[in-house]
Amino acid sequence: MNVIHFSFECYPVAKAGGLGDVVGALPKYQQKKGVNSWVVMPRYYNSWIIDRPVEVVHAGITVLGNEKFQYEVHKVTGDPLGYPLYLIHIPGLLDRPGVYVDPSSGYGYWDEFHRYLAFQVSALNWLNSFAWLPNVLHCHDHHTSLIPFMITSCPAYDRLKSIPTVVTIHNGEYHGNYDMGKMFYLPEVYPWEVGYLEWGGRMNSLAAGIRKSWKVTTVSQSYLYELHSNANGLEYLLKHETPKSVGIINGIDDDVWDPATDPLINHHYSVKNADKGKLANKKDLCDYFNLDPNRPMFAFIGRLVKEKGADLLPQLISWFLSERQDASFVVLGTGDPWLHDRLKAMNSEFTGYFDTSIQYNEALSHKIYAGADFILMPSRVEPCGLNQMYAMKYGTVPIVRSIGGLKDTVIDFEDVDGYGVRFDHFSLEDAFNALNRAMRLHADTKRMKQVRKKMMELDFSWDRSAQTYLDLYNSIN
Description:
Elements: E1 2-6, H1 18-32, E2 36-42, H2 47-50, E3 54-64, E4 67-76, E5 85-89, H3 112-128, E6 136-140, H4 146-153, E7 165-169, E8 177-178, E9 198-199, E10 202-204, H5 205-212, E11 215-218, H6 221-226, H7 235-240, E12 245-247, H8 274-289, E13 297-301, H9 313-323, E14 328-332, H10 337-349, E15 354-357, H11 362-371, E16 374-377, H12 387-393, E17 397-401, H13 404-409, E18 421-423, H14 428-443, H15 445-456, H16 462-475
Helix pairs in contact: 1-16, 4-5, 8-11, 9-14
């Protein structure tokens, strides 16, 4: 079976969130199951790509309305990720340092629609040149979801219309929603197909992909049904498409996330010596942040945005540390500027008890997973969540709101066979109570060890999820 994944992110090439982790790992595990799985993504101008040897396998011209772009398809030599990786190179459009945001300004690229569309049209033009056709085209999020529409609605791609397509919704908040006038940048569309582009009076890329794909997946079962009531305007469409939709929980890459072999942490450990290993990593982490290793440590890792519940953190942490100074907190991430400023101010307000690092730092995130006692995830929305899986792999107890994939992967420690801390409502009071419950768990050394052992023995690898995707592909071939 030949499967091609189309994505704007793929770890470690370029990553802005969980989408990059998924696309970086899933094809590798599919290869292990005998699937010839490729990834096609933009050729950005970043440190991973610029010195990587490549072979130019195709070149052509992409036309968007009255504009023309020259493009090339580069294959990364040696398959360093464990599967074929192809990069679409469009000078002046895709060869930028950021994925969605200009690192020099902190703002999103103004011509994002042109970037997304040029990538998809170039990829399909290349695909049109193949002597053979792949079995499945797997499109990830709205940046690539016009592919199912174009191969079924544009005469230029009639040859490709029989290829089964899958659209995976990693985050249903973002649709690729534009003025209907943008449709004139697309290749010629059959007149009777134009309506598939429109949703709510605007051109909606994700809606078009949902309508025209053979299958729709979300990254957890709970999130699939949550989208029926909270999909930023696509609720009715997703309810209507329920028969072809399925929730498949993400996995984690055991080759990258394993405290026994992780090259980014200083002290390796397994479930057998987790207490000793975590303590050694915690001491290093506390030295870095100037905190006391004798106190329980709570950490937040991720985007500092409302979706992740990060706006709750300043009040929550301030309230907790004002009530009781027997814990430490660290925050790692970037996001809303006002949150940057507020968290930085807290560094001096709670010196020795709180510290923050306003950056994306993959190595430091690994060190925090290895050294912290608890990971905070008070999300408003969480389609799947990977941080809780990373944390549990490293013996770090997740404190999560019962939403989406967090609800599907974390069982409260006070329930039968439980191993995490859950709370139901997005409120300061519920989150504060969860912190206090976590403190009681930490104080019960025997119970804490049992929970840690239970978590670390759970299997969140991609093996099972990769097989579920394979079963899905077989069902449409």
